[in-house]
């Protein structure tokens, strides 16, 4: 049987070694050892407006390094259209419809900071990433993966606080991970179906 | 709604801060920066024989640092009874019945090495840990968590290459994680049931 990893590599076109090249060095440290680049990226992923220049202000930058709450508050104040939440495809928008944008941004950047060598902010607040488990309610298809990656590529393109080399590594990680989740989602749905059918057959009158 | 993290803390009796105290330092480095303590632990978890003294041989230890394959081969050669695979409870044994002991040992110590600050051996070979997703096929109940923890406590007790302080931190992590998986398993099963019921109801004649 083909493993999740094999499927992810085949479908994404990214070998595991390239996907996990993010672990060759410490991306969090190489980007300055602050949450800012990841906050920029996740904000750009969910929000179309370019807010990066604001954070280049040195006084704000100093605040941000010690006060993530302030940062979250400030992102709420910045006007701008939504990227993912206003996607032209309804089926894609619906994946995000149950979560508040501010929460989605925080969940994503805390995960990314943790995964790229920074402090384990996500696990301290929410536990293990459990990527497949947490994506279980959504229909993570090849098409959904491509649309997510399309937005992430655009978000990366507009994030000035991340250098070109890190962007390549991160995109390889994202591409491989997106298809890993397609494979994982398929696997858990197949398992559920077999349970479901047995259950339905044994209790037909209910 | 209570989060997975809240349920894990309530059921395990371990606060998130204590569970993730493993991240306060780098346990992999503090244990010598080699796979050996983790290989010892996972071998002790699945195998009852005390193999630790063998690895204290300096020549073997040097080999082990550079050759995990050799190590795996050597663990296969050591006679000893099985711990988890020969558990007195059939329902617990069955959780492991589909996996080869050598694979189970390698999966566990590669995950632990990666999670405790060492090289990302697990992800390079198998992808994201995806703890909830990978445990989806098994009925991870409170009772199963306690039995798993019982064996892990015994395995830790007999692993001389791990110091007392690290053992406390690791056991807190294991206890919290075991119940995090109980909560995650419950969550994905509930999601499956609701899908299952809708499916069954709409196609009663099948």
From TrEMBL, chains A, B:
Q: Which residues cross the membrane?
A: none
Query: Which Gene Ontology terms cover its molecular function?
Result: heme binding; metal ion binding; oxygen binding; oxygen carrier activity
Keyword Metal-binding on entry: yes
Keyword Transmembrane attached: no
Keywords in alphabetical order = Heme, Iron, Metal-binding, Oxygen transport, Transport
Q: Gene3D superfamilies this protein is in?
A: Globins (1.10.490.10)
Annotated signal sequence range: none
Mind telling me which InterPro entries this protein's record contains? Answer: GlbO/GLB3-like, Globin-like_sf, Globin/Proto, Hemoglobin_trunc
Q: Which family does it belong to?
A: Belongs to the truncated hemoglobin family. Group II subfamily.
- Quote the PANTHER family the UniProt record gives: TWO-ON-TWO HEMOGLOBIN-3
Instruction: Write down what this protein is called.
Output: Hemoglobin
Instruction: Give the organism, scientific name.
Output: Digitaria exilis
The major lineage groups are: Eukaryota, Viridiplantae, Streptophyta, Embryophyta, Tracheophyta
């Amino acid at each position: 049987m083909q493993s999740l990893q094999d499927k992810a590599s085949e479908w994404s076109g990214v070998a595991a070694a390239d996907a996990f090249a993010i672990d060759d060095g410490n991306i969090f440290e190489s980007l300055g050892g602050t949450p800012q680049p990841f906050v920029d990226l996740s904000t750009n992923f969910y929000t179309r407006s370019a807010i990066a220049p604001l954070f280049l202000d040195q006084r704000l930058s100093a605040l941000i390094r010690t006060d993530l709450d302030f940062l979250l508050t400030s992102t709420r104040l910045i006007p701008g259209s939504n990227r993912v939440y206003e996607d032209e495809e309804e089926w894609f928008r619906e994946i995000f419809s149950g979560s508040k944008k501010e929460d989605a941004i925080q969940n994503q950047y805390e995960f990314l900071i943790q995964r790229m060598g920074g402090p384990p902010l996500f696990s301290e607040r929410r536990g293990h990433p459990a990527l497949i488990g947490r994506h279980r309610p959504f229909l993570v298809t090849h098409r959904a993966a491509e649309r997510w990656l399309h937005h992430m590529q655009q978000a990366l393109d507009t994030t000035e606080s991340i250098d070109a080399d890190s962007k390549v590594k991160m995109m390889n990680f994202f591409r491989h991970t997106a298809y890993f989740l397609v494979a994982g989602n398929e696997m858990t749905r197949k398992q559920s179906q077999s349970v479901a059918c047995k259950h339905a057959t044994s209790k037909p009158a209910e």
